[in-house]
Amino acid sequence: MLERIDFPALLAGHSIVIEMINSGEAGLPVLTQLLRVAQPALGATGMAFVEFGPTGGRVIAATGAAEWALGRPLAADDPDTVCLLAGPRVQQVRVGHLNGKLASELAGSGLRQMVVSRAEIGGHTVGSLHALYSSDEEPGAERQGVVAYLASCVGHMYGDQTGLPVHGDGPVVAALADGLAVVDRDGHVRLWNPAAAQVTGRPVEQALSRPLPFPLPPSGQVRDHRMPDGRWLRITSGDLPGPGTLRVVTFRDITDQQRRDHDRELFVAVTSHELRTPVTVIKGYADTLTDHWESLTEADRRQAARVIGQRANELARLVDRLLSSAAEAGPGDEPPTLFDLGDALRSAVADLPAELRRRLTLLLPPDLPKALGHRPSLTTVLTELTTNAGKYSAPDTPIEITASADGHLVAFRVSDRGIGIRPEHVERAFDRFWQGESGDRRGYPGAGLGLYLVRRIVEQQNGWVSLRPRTGGGTVAEVRLPRG
C-alpha cells in the first residue's frame, strides 16, 4: 500500500474523466475509467462499483484484482449487502468481518481490507464504491475521504442519467416480456434483463461486458436471426438519447411464428400444385366432350366420363384433407363410445374407390372385441392409409387389412408390398406436407396431409398410429385404439 495518496496522478486522471464526459462519453466507459484512475492513486489492489436496484445489487465495473467479480450479483438479503447499506456512508471494513459468500470470495483472492462508500442521490442509494487492499494495514481516514468524494462523483453521473443505471434488476426492466439489452459503442453488453437471459439461455454473468450472442441490426431497423440451436429471434435496436453512445436492443423468440409462416407458404405452394393437376385433367376431358361429342365413339365418351369422375373424386378427397387440416377437424370434444371395430372396418372398405377395393384383402378375427373411440372418423383413417399404401406400391400388388386385440388395445393394420419406408422416416412421415421418397413429386402425387390427419384423429381418441417397414418389402401402418 502506498504511504500517501498520489494526488497529482488522481487529479490528472480525473481531468481525463471529465474530458471524456465533455466529449460525449457516458455510463460504464466513464465509470470504468474513473476506477482505473483511482486504483493506482489510492494504492489499491483493485476497485469495484456495485449498482443497487430494488432486488439487490450487481458488480457493474471492476479493475485490478477485483475484475473477476464483474457481473456478480448481490442478493438484497445477503449479509454483505445489508452491511454495505447500513451504518456510515463511508467506512473501512475488514474482509474477515463480513459473513456472506462475497467475503470468502474476496479472501480467496487475497483481499483483506476495503474502503467502501455509498453513492447516493437525495438520500437514495444507487450503489457503492469499493477500494480493495491485499494488505492488513488499515487504509486510513485520508483514503476514506477520497473514496467518498469519488462515490459522490458517481452519484452525480446517476443524477445526470448518463447511461446509468446499467443492470437489469429494476422493476420495469425486469417485468418486460421481451429481452432487453443495452450495448456500448464497442458492442459490449451493459444491461441484460431477466427476459434476455431466458430467451437466449445466457445468464447475466455470462452476458455483461461481452458481445451480443447475435448480430446487432442498424439503429431503427429490425432483423430476424436464426440462432445456432435453430430458434429464431426478431431483433430491433435504437440509439439512446443523450450525449452517450449507448444503444438499446430488444429481441423476442419468433420460432413459432416462423414455423407458421413456413407452413402457410408451403400450404399455398403444395395446394396450388395438387389442385392444378385434377382440375387440368377434368377441364381437358370436358372440353373434349363438348367440342368433339359427335366425332367420339360411345367407348371414348364413357372413358372420358370415367376419367372425369375419378379426377373429381381425387379432387374432393384433396379438398376434404385441406379443409380438415385448416380447421383442425377430428373427433374434437365428442365423448368416446363403444363400437364394433370389425363392422366399422367392413363398412369403411365398402366406401373406398373401386380400384382400391379390388386390391384389398380383409382378414378379421371373428371374436374381435369392441373399440372405444369415434366410429365415423374410422372411414377417413382407413381411406388415407389404404390410399397411401396404393400410391407407394405397384397397381397389381395386394393390400392387406388385418386386426387383433390384447387386454387393453384393439388394433388394425394396413400392409402393402410397395417401396417401403426407411426407419429414419417412420416419424417424419406424419409431419404436415412431408412426403417420403418424393424427389420427383410427379411419381408420387399428393399434398402430404393424409398421415398428418390420421395421427391427429387417432390421438384425439387416446390411440396411436405408427409405421414400420414390412419384412420382405413394403410398409405396415398400425392403428391402436383403447379396448372397450
Structural write-up:
By secondary structure, this protein is an alpha+beta fold. It is 39% helix and 23% strand. It has helices at 7-22, 28-42, 79-85, 101-108, 141-160, 171-175, 194-200, 204-207, 255-292, 298-327, 341-350, 354-357, 376-391, 450-459, and strands spanning 46-53, 56-64, 73-75, 90-94, 113-121, 124-133, 179-183, 189-192, 222-226, 232-239, 247-253, 337-339, 360-363, 371-373, 399-405, 409-415, 464-469, 475-482. It has a 6-stranded antiparallel sheet with strand order 3-2-1-6-5-4. Strand 7 (179-183) and strand 8 (189-192) form a beta hairpin. Helix 9 packs antiparallel against helix 10. Residues 437-442 have low confidence and may be disordered.
In brief, what are we looking at here?
It is built from 14 helices and 18 strands. It is an alpha+beta fold and 484 residues long.
Helices and strands in order:
Elements: H1 7-22, H2 28-42, E1 46-53, E2 56-64, E3 73-75, H3 79-85, E4 90-94, H4 101-108, E5 113-121, E6 124-133, H5 141-160, H6 171-175, E7 179-183, E8 189-192, H7 194-200, H8 204-207, E9 222-226, E10 232-239, E11 247-253, H9 255-292, H10 298-327, E12 337-339, H11 341-350, H12 354-357, E13 360-363, E14 371-373, H13 376-391, E15 399-405, E16 409-415, H14 450-459, E17 464-469, E18 475-482
Parallel strand pairs: 13-15
Antiparallel strand pairs: 1-2, 1-6, 2-3, 4-5, 5-6, 7-8, 7-11, 9-10, 10-11, 12-14, 15-16, 16-18, 17-18
